[in-house]
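Incident log, structure service

09:12 report received: a user says their structure output differs between two submissions of the same chain.
09:20 pulled the input from the user's history:
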Amino acid sequence: RATLLLLLWLLYQQKLEEAKCSLRGDLPERADVLHAAATRVAAKVQAALPQTLWVQPTLAFFRTAALLSNGCYSGDAPPCRARMAAMLAADGLAYPRLRLMATCRAAEE
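09:34 re-ran on a clean worker, output below:
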C-alpha cells in the first residue's frame, strides 16, 4: 500500500504542495527511490512495448510515464498543462500541437 500511496504522491505532488502538504520522516527519500525505480521500469517497457504493435496500450503507457516523470496528475487539467508547458519552455521546447488530417475516396468497382 505504501508504494501505491507514494506513486499517487508523485502524481499529485504539485497539487499537494499548493495545499501545503509534505512528506515527513524517511518518506521523501523513499519517494525519490520509488521515482527512480519507476523511471527505470518505464525505460525498459518503453523499449519493448512498441514492438507488440498494440497501439492503444502503448499510447496509454507513454501518457502515464510522461505524467509520472513530470509530476502531473492529468494531461488535461489546466495546472498540469501549465506545468508541462513551463518544463518544456525551460528546455527551450514549444508545447506540442498535433493535428491529423485524412482524406478518403470511395473504392472504385
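09:41 both user submissions now match this output. Likely a transient worker issue. Closing.
09:42 reviewer note: The radius of gyration is 18 Å. The helical segments are 2-11, 13-18, 27-48, 55-70, 78-90.
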